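Q: Give me the 3D complex with S-adenosyl-L-homocysteine.
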Amino acid sequence: MSSIKPPLAIISAMEGELRAVLGQLTHQKKVSVGQRDFWLGHWHGHDVVAVLSRIGKVAAATTATALVERFGVAEMVFTGVAGGLGAGVAVGDVVVASHFLQHDMDASPLFPRHEVPLYGRSHFDTDERLGSALALATQAVLADTVGLLGAQAVQEFSLTAPQLHRGLIISGDRFVCSTSESAALQRALPDALAVEMEGAAVAQVCHDYGIPFAAVRTISDRADDGAHHDFNRFMDSVASRYSAAIVSAWLRSRP
Ligand code: SAH
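A: Here is the predicted complex, encoded as structure tokens.
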């Protein structure tokens, strides 16, 4: 442990997602900034700041900015849940983002649809090295879901062969829970694997400050008419455990 190394940030949008992560942090110290609690601690020999961003792009951007300005973090990782959009992106699968886009950004006709005005781009890349390290950690975790979750949860949520995907995740200030809306998103953005409400905002802040960023999202629903069913139970029984195990495996393997 070196105290001069800047800390690594772990961000979650929802309480259930953060709880499992906090369960692993030792030497915890809470610092409150901007109505948020930032938890400083140690995990596998690394200095870590874990925080609840709350839901939506503005809340996520504020959180990411505070992590840079007040805590001087070296890298950020977002862990949470998302709705599956791409064919074959099933509940219980995990998506590691390669890049992000805001699906509700529309300053047309002044700027092309989805382009962030004055940035000249619609897509924000994640850090390749960080994403690859998280993908490796995810693969290790998905290889033994029975060991992590127990046979009953694996059977209940049909998690016998969960898949890792890497690609585009789209974000917007809407919980997508109708088949017509998810079909419209798939038509407009056929490359999108998953939809959530924070990642593109954090990616934009990290782009502005030159901070490496990566995101890992467990698919909690298919963003269709059944999206709200059992959301909380899935969070407690599956997604929060995946998150903590994936971050743990990543930090353990990190020099
Ligand atoms: N039904 C939940 C909704 C929470 S908002 C509740 O009542 O508590 C959804 C959160 O999960 C956001 O942080 C978002 O990033 C992610 N998410 C999961 N599935 C999503 C979907 N289908 N559309 C948008 N965001 C989704």
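A quick observation: Residues 231-253 form the longest helix (23 residues).
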